[in-house]
Amino acid sequence: MAEAHGCVLVVDDDPRVARVYAEQLRNAHTVRVAYSGTEALDSLDDDVDIVLLDRRMPGLTGDQVLERIREQDLNCQVAMVTAVEPDFEIIDMEFDEYLFKPVTGDQLLTTVDHLLHRATVDSSLQEFFRLASKRAALEAEKSQTELEHSDEFSELTSQFELLRDELRDSLDELGDDEAFELALSRWD
């Protein structure tokens, strides 16, 4: 996948963390920085492609900023970059990726590149990746027993598998695309 250039908004109430992320991204992307939820919303416009959003901030939280981004129908991808361990409430959140702090520069760059690419694909495939991200975040933090006893996780898994199968069927109709099939198989 060729690397694309994008506009990234880094949102974190810890100025040191925000500056480090910005510096790690600046050589490959245009970067804006906000130190609060309010600043983040003020910094958002149609030029922003990716938002790297801390969940736990005083005042307007990352969760609230995410809700406002989606309410405003801004066409950007959002990665939650946080130390907050995910609980089943993330299933209803409309983020595109969930990263656990501490995050390396390589992880940031890879995530931004993936999100820029995802923004160019069909909405069904974008939804597939959102579901996959939520599923992976919960599987990383929850015990097998907790997952097995969660109706929310069961529904998430059902949605994920249904969408995966629909995408595979569409792929079969279009012809064999080995790279796409490999991407889907990663989430089996």
TrEMBL record:
The PTM 4-aspartylphosphate maps to D54
Q: Does the keyword Phosphoprotein apply?
A: yes
Signal sequence span is none
Q: Which regions span the lipid bilayer?
A: none
State the UniProt keywords alphabetically.
Phosphoprotein
One GO-annotated biological process of the protein: phosphorelay signal transduction system
Concerning PANTHER family, the annotation shows:
RESPONSE REGULATORY DOMAIN-CONTAINING PROTEIN, STRESS RESPONSE REGULATOR PROTEIN 1
Q: What is this protein called?
A: Rec domain
Q: Which organism is it from?
A: Natranaeroarchaeum sulfidigenes
